[in-house]
Amino acid sequence: MSNESGTDRRTLDRRKRNIPVAIERRKANASEKRRTSERRRQIDPTTCERDYSGEEIAFMKAMDQYKRDNRRPFPTWSEVLEVLRALGYRKVAEPTELPGLHPDHPPAKG
Predict the structure, then answer these.
(1) Residue 108: inside a domain
(2) 14-68 confidence digits (pLDDT tens)
(3) Domain range holding 45?
(4) Does residue 59 fall inside a structural domain?
(5) 101-to-90, 93, 105 alpha-carbon distances in Å
(6) Would you call 8 helix, strand, or coil by DSSP?
(7) Is residue 53 domain-resident?
(8) Residues pairing with 8 in the sheet
(9) How far apart are CA 53 and CA 95, in angstroms?
């Protein structure tokens, strides 16, 4: 098919021309995005980025796996306890004071 100037459009098809691209962004960014999304999946953004212990990482990975396998984005506390037990945790010591605010100190108003 020819246009008004008499040239065939197929010879001008840009898709067939071999024009170098400065950066192949899709491939370069895809692996980076996978790495950051994998890391983001393991880290609760409310805790800020910090160095996690091996136990913490194992727990976060186990919870992430449980949520994906069971399609449960917000597991119940009973489900969290099931995951902890599956990791091998058992109550073997007497309870201690919970971390955080002491009961004698009221929470700050804000």
Answers:
(1) no
(2) 666 676 666 655 555 666 666 665 555 555 555 667 889 999 999 999 999 999 9
(3) 24-86
(4) yes
(5) 25, 22, 6
(6) strand
(7) yes
(8) 2
(9) 22
